[in-house]
Amino acid sequence: MGLLVAALAMGCKSTPPPTPIANLTPQQAAGHAVFQTRCAVCHYDRQTGALHGPSLLGVFKKPALPSGAAATDERVTATVTHGRNNMPAMAGQMAPGDMDDLLAYLHTL
């Protein structure tokens, strides 16, 4: 009985699963491609745990980013564009529209 209560309590704190890749909109699918090219070397998108950087699973479903900053499009854009700590700046490495596509994809996680 105690194990069931613990499992239910843990389930209440979990985030919803990411949108299945097959169900992504064209913009979200383009963002997935950007993620695979630019982000997947350091971040997981569909599993927990750190790779070289933190997992981005549920990044916009949590009240704050791993840094403690609010999980907003503006903060994520600034982090991707300018870098932070060990994360390199991606400014100039992304094509026009890539950031919007990436944000659309990250919202599905």
What can you see in these coordinates?
It contains four helices and no strands. The termini are far apart. The chain has a single domain (26-106), classed as Cytochrome Bc1 Complex, Chain D, domain 2 (Orthogonal Bundle), CATH 1.10.760.10. The chain has 109 residues and is an all-alpha fold. Pfam families: Cytochrome_CBB3. Residues 26-109 form the Cytochrome c domain. This is Cytochrome C oxidase, cbb3-type, subunit III.
Q: Which sheet architecture does the biggest sheet show?
A: none
**Unreliable residue runs:** 1-11
Kindly report the name of the CATH homologous superfamily: Cytochrome c-like domain
CATH architecture: Orthogonal Bundle
Total DSSP helices = 4
Radius of gyration: 15 Å
Shape: globular
Order of helices and strands: HHHH
What is the tally of beta strands? 0
Provide a brief overview of the structure.
It contains four helices and no strands.
List the helices and strands and how they pair.
Layout: H1 2-12, H2 26-39, H3 73-82, H4 98-106
Helix pairs in contact: 2-4
Considering the chains and any ligands shown, give keywords for the structure.
single chain, 109 residues, mainly alpha, Cytochrome Bc1 Complex, Chain D, domain 2, 4 helices, disordered N terminus
